[in-house]
Amino acid sequence: xxxxxxxxxxxxxxxxxxxxxxxxxxxxxxxxxxxxxxxxxxxxxxxxxxxxxxxxxxxxxxxxxxxxxxxxxxxxxxxxxxxxxxxxxxxxxxxxxxxxxxxxxxxxxxxxxxxxxxxxxxxxxxxxxxxxxxxxxxxxxxxxxxxxxxxxxxxxxxxxxxxxxxxxxxxxxxxxxxxxxxxxxxxxxxxxxxxxxxxxxxxxxxxxxxxxxxxxxxxxxxxxxxxxxxxxxxxxxxxxxxxxxxxxxxxxxxxxxxxxxxxxxxxxxxxxxxxxxxxxxxxxxxxxxxxxxxxxxxxxxxxxxxxxxxxxxxxxxxxxxxxxxxxxxxxxxxxxxxxxxxxxxxxxxxxxxxxxxxxxxxxxxxxxxxxxxxxxxxxxxxxxxxxxxxxxxxxxxxxxxxxxxxxxxxxxxxxxxxxxxxxxxxxxxxxxxxxxxxxxxxxxxxxxxxxxxxxxxxxxxxxxxxxxxxxxxxxxxxxxxxxxxxxxxxxxxxxxxxxxxxxxxxxxxxxxxxxxxxxxxxxxxxxxxxxxxxxxxxxxxxxxxxxxxxxxxxxxxxxxxxxxxxxxxxxxxxxxxxxxxxxxxxxxxxxxxxxxxxxxxxxxxxxxxxxxxxxxxxxxxxxxxxxxxxxxxxxxxxxxxxxxxxxxxxxxxxxxxxxxxxxxxxxxxxxxxxxxxxxxxxxxxxxxxxxxxxxxxxxxxxxxxxxxxxxxxxxxxxxxxxxxxxxxxxxxxxxxxxxxxxxxxxxxxxxxxxxxxxxxxxx
Length: 763
Ligand code: BGC
What we know:
Bound molecules: beta-D-glucopyranose
Radius of gyration: 30 Å
Distance between the termini: 70 Å
């Protein structure tokens, strides 16, 4: 199909009509030209295809499908191969059901554990989120189905989600909120991107030419089409100009007419309409070229995959006295309504109509010595004394009590935020009472985001299972009884209390403005810099075996920022069980003139090791691993200096460290004024050469022999003098520079700021 030719054959009305959905889930057709509609569907951890009575909030039923672990869980695998495999399975389902684009993955950063949609997002860390998303996209698209990377951009709260503005400085935008999208676009090459509901710095994303065209396409090379989140379009005409191609869902023709009028009145260039149509049709055509509706969709096979994946995502948070794994045949009291009716996904548009659900009890059928007590109800938050007493009796009678607890549906969902980090009071009370009755108490948590654990000290073991998809019960069994060795790591920090979280003071914002005043210091970047105590740090997770690290090697002791640095480290399984370790590489800028986190994740690798086995793990670090976003440069910038290369078990547990000296090859532009202070001027080579002799003269004047002939010594040391000069503005040379005229200083300033002026003039 020659898309450009087709577009040239269309009337303006036909073209405008293609810029919005035909209904809830389809693009439009132009029968006269043989243009067929395609279907899109949620996403992202299963296929939510609705046949009729469509809605975007998951209220009406969709077809039976397989619910895989949600993003909060898959991120904990720290294993992009896992999201890739999941993507392939999802792609097959879409092929079978003739769905052209799966609406996901979501890569928004978990700025606060309160965001109602955190279960649909990967991490507080952009590197991890980007890696997981890019692989999921690759997986789906390897099957000839498109994805929609969402929700672009800075959609980090549900509160006032359709009007709130995420207000932040450019560095925070570039270093925290953009990179996961950037990585997913550059590596995953999604067919489409979904723009978010919210505004960024006052401007709706669906109207932002800067975000949709300059950055997304211009800088990152995105070549698909942008669709709106459902109902996100504010000003459609501005949107077309910005690069927002497809409005979803249908707008009853209203916005199509506005587009036509805008072109007729000259307010919108028709070529921008043509471009949007071309982009949409190109992606649709890609689907038609690859459509294979005869693709089998083996749900039972996918269920087994979902079970394997869910186990790979579970994080062992505590395991005192090796309480886990459980001994086969030993008596176990399984307690908790979630053991019979698991919570395995979140509410809203991602809600999958699972063709079957496997609870822990289902998975334990036929296993001897297992009893069950409900423990709590899923209605209400309080405790039920009768259920509680029954649970305590069951716990007393067994060698181990396993409580399956977590957050009920209403506690976290699309559409609104959480207000606290507590589990229902009834569940906390149950855990307390059961752990008093049986010292061997194990807690398994089904929840989409961090919770407080006031009972932590009283229990032997805790497994964070997150929202693990429809096979979570089987996976829970596999972990508890040791068929799978836990290998998940926390993709987010679990704080001790809500008040400790980086954006506690500003989260949600005032009216429609949410100030991101914590800036770069999101998640572990904040807790680590403040050396705050946390419940569990980013990257943390235990195993039934142990791993040791040795021989951290760098390919060079010093590099230029244009070179790659090869890093290798040896990992050994020193325990007696096969297991997987997540090797985490952090980069720490030792000294910087810019504010920087203590360390940032720049590499990760998951390796499986037999007992006693050693493997070498390799990483390649490029320019970006050392760079920060320079507002002055409008680009990534590496400041010369030493960087720590740290291999960690979590952001708080660095096992090995080496240092590399990196020389930056870019120079920051000079924009000095008479008010620039010397500490800044001295960082610029040209300024240093021009001004050093003058400053020495000032030091002499201020600290040299006094008029009364006495040597000034005791009152002021050289260091003090230096500190005072550091903060003195350039204009101070007129006062203290021994008769230097203002005009002479202006000349010097011009030379320093002039990029074409020679390095220094001989004087
Ligand atoms: C959600 C999107 C979803 C869309 C379609 C919106 O409410 O924000 O994530 O893809 O609905 O269901």
